[in-house]
Amino acid sequence: MVRSGPKMTLPTQLVLRALLKQPTKALYGLEICGAAGLASGTIHPILARLEGAGWLESSWEDINPRAVGRPRRRYYRLSPDGIEQARYALAHAHSSIDRVGGGILRPGLAGGSPS
Predict the structure, then answer these.
(1) Residue 108: what pLDDT?
(2) Contacts with 54 (C-beta within 8 Å, 6 or more apart), sequence order
(3) Which residues contact 7 (CB under 8 A, 6 or more apart)?
(4) Helix (H, G, I), strand (E, B) or coil at 15
(5) What Å distances lie between residue 93 and 15, 48, 86, CA to CA?
(6) Which of 17, 49, 75, 105 could form a disulfide with 26 if both were Cys (CB 3.0 to 4.6 A apart)?
(7) Which residues lie closer than 8 Å to 25 by C-beta, 6 or more apart?
(8) Are strands 27-28 and 56-60 parallel, antiparallel or unpaired?
(9) What span, in angstroms and rounded, lies between the C-alpha atoms of 25 and 15?
(10) Where is 44: in which H helix or E strand?
């Protein structure tokens, strides 16, 4: 059974879709921003909520920031349970959005052609 999780706002759905493209790969914040098409200030609160819900795992990059000339990156990856939860949540969010919003997340796949 799938437990309740974070609210499935459009930005949350975009972040989950980006993470599910390669569900076992760890991505850092700016990679997720690019894949989701969202700003950093939007994705980081979402990532924190997903991690708090147990859908994500995160870890800090093991580097010397002075040696590489940049700050350490925090990497995020869907947990095994998070992969299942995210797929379930998106499947249910898609059906609602496709019926009400005309296929916002899946243009052309909403079950009809535009009028």
Answers:
(1) 38
(2) 79, 81, 82
(3) none
(4) helix
(5) 13, 20, 10
(6) 75
(7) 77
(8) unpaired
(9) 14
(10) helix 40-52
**Cβ contact 5:53 at 8 Å:** yes
Neighbour count for residue 114 (Cβ, 10 Å): 8
For residue 5, the model assigns a pLDDT of 81
Domain boundaries, the chain: 10-62+72-101
pLDDT confidence of residue 94: 61
- Which residue matches tokens 């243009």? 107
Tens digits of pLDDT across the chain (115 residues): 445 688 899 999 999 999 999 999 999 999 999 999 999 999 999 999 999 999 999 999 999 999 999 999 999 999 999 999 999 999 988 644 444 444 444 433 333 334 3
Which secondary-structure segment (H or E) carries 28? strand 27-28
pTM: 0.76
Does CATH number 1.10.10.10 belong to domain 10-62+72-101? yes
* Paired strand residues for 78: 56
